[in-house]
């Protein structure tokens, strides 16, 4: 019996993301138990950039990060669904991946877990960066992105009024423990990403793995030729661990240069007044 964790990145109960996770689970061709986690319900603080997770092996912020990571680590596979909010995935995805430096300490329990992702947008063609945000989430938690797709549906539940969306749920279900679904070209040969930035020198950069190359118009149509640079950090486990080691090196560099850096900071310290937040607010 496989243990599946469904991560719902929407606050809307019985909304489209929750229903898509459950629909993928219904069509999963293996015996399993589905447990659900509504990401925005958890108390997740912003990363404060202290890097103490590097020296201490765990994040020092008191919140629910470890509860979520433990649930991910305990699962055999993941189904993630996130809504599009203003042309990108829900902010809880980014809040979570920003804590990603502390995930390295659990790499042995996280790496390579099969996962599928689905982004739900209310308006056809207005998903913006949602698919990229979902895939970045999966790569940052060191999962194996078996297949990720965008579906459309606005009103809560509407997503499964479409037979096409149900079919996509079935494809995601079969991909979870099957062969990773290759995207049609052009996509990044290193990570499968389908979003690039056009650079001034005519090259393109994959926005998922950050490696650079060219968009080539050949006999088989457009293809991306991308090669791994010397600081790739999401393409394979070695690259991820090398990035962790690079961060450790930065920590050593910071310790060496601390006094010079403090002198620079002191020059800018009392420059201008700050607007401060008001006290805690209570929702009605
Ligand atoms: C604040 C907000 C912003 C949204 N922005 C977009 C958008 O940029 N593009 C889009 O296609 N849909 C947008 N939507 C629609 C949702 O993506 C859509 O209703 C989706 O089904 C919500 O999933 P849920 O039911 O799981 O919450 C937005 C919805 C909200 C509440």
Describe this structure in words.
This protein has 284 residues and is α/β, with parallel strands linked by helices. 33% of the residues lie in helices and 22% in strands. The protein has a domain of 180 residues: Rossmann fold. A hairpin with a 5-residue loop joins strand 8 and strand 9. Flavin mononucleotide binds next to helix 1, strand 3 and strand 5.
* Mean pLDDT score: 95
Distance between the terminal alpha carbons, to the nearest Å?
A: 43 Å
Main sheet: strands, sense, barrel: 6 strands, mixed
Which architecture of one domain does the CATH hierarchy give at level 2? 3-Layer(aba) Sandwich
Helical content class: 25-40%
User: Percent of residues in beta strands?
Assistant: 15-25%
- The level 1 CATH classification of one domain is Alpha Beta
* Fold-level CATH name of one domain: Rossmann fold
Features:
single chain, 284 residues, alpha/beta, Rossmann fold, 6-stranded mixed sheet, 4-stranded antiparallel sheet, binds flavin mononucleotide
Quick rundown:
By secondary structure, this protein is α/β, with parallel strands linked by helices. 33% of the residues lie in helices and 22% in strands. The protein has a domain of 180 residues: 3-Layer(aba) Sandwich (Rossmann fold).
Please outline the helices and strands:
Elements: E1 2-8, H1 16-26, E2 32-38, H2 52-56, H3 65-74, E3 77-85, E4 88-89, H4 91-97, H5 107-110, E5 114-121, H6 130-140, E6 144-152, H7 163-176, E7 196-198, E8 204-206, E9 212-218, E10 221-227, H8 237-268
This protein binds flavin mononucleotide (FMN).
């Amino acid at each position: 019996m496989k243990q599946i964790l469904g991560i719902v990145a929407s606050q809307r109960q019985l909304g489209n993301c929750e229903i898509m996770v459950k629909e993928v689970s219904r069509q999963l061709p293996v015996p399993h138990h589905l447990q659900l986690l509504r990401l925005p319900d958890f108390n997740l603080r912003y990363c404060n950039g202290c890097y103490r997770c590097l020296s201490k092996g765990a994040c020092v912020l008191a919140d629910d990060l470890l509860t979520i990571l433990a649930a991910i680590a305990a699962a055999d596979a993941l189904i993630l669904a996130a809504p599009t909010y203003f042309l990108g995935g829900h902010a809880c995805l980014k809040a979570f991946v920003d804590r990603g430096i502390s995930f390295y300490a659990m790499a042995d329990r996280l790496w390579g877990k099969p996962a599928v992702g689905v982004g739900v947008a209310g308006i056809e063609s207005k998903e913006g960066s949602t698919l990229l945000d979902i895939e970045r989430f999966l790569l940052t938690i060191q999962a194996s992105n078996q297949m990720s797709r965008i579906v459309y549906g606005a009103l809560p539940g509407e997503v499964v009024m479409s037979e096409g969306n149900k079919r996509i749920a079935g494809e995601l279900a079969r991909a979870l423990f099957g062969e990773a679904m290759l995207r049609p070209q052009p996509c990044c040969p290193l990570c499968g990403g389908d979003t690039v930035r056009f650079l001034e020198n005519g090259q393109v950069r994959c926005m998922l793995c950050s490696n650079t190359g060219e968009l080539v118009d050949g006999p088989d149509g457009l293809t991306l030729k991308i090669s791994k640079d010397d600081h790739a950090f999401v393409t394979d486990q070695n690259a991820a661990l090398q990035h962790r080691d690079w961060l450790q090196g930065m920590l050593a560099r910071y310790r060496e240069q601390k006094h010079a850096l403090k002198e620079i900071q002191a020059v800018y310290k009392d420059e201008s007044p700050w607007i401060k937040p008001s006290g805690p607010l209570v929702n009605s």
